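Predict fold of ABC3 transporter permease C-terminal domain-containing protein; 128 aa.
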Amino acid sequence: MTLLITSIAAISLLVGGVGVMNIMLVSVTERTHEIGIRLSVGARPSDIMTQFLIEAVVICTLGGLIGIVGSALAGVVFSWVTQEFTMIFTWPPLVLACSFSALIGLGFGFFPARNAARLHPTEALARE
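Predicted 3D structure, encoded as tokens:
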């Protein structure tokens, strides 16, 4: 049973990571003009890359926190329905879950952030 739940969680994280990567790629495409302006006024490519990596990490960490709150609410509801069900939360797994969510954001946000950082200012400003 534990292996099944772990497999489902791993697949969910993979699908969620791909979803975040796609959202970030669309964000880079939509904000190409803004990136070009920032690069032309002196922003370094590392600044652009850091911005998009932070955005991806924040999105994934918030998703992890929302998931933790949702599971806590589900635990409360199940404990009201039946007295045989109790959900116990401890800090280490919660911190690990949020940390892993942040790592997923970092890993899957790298490709879009790198694409944004590699844009040339003149080409980025020409697109619109």
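The mean pLDDT is 93.
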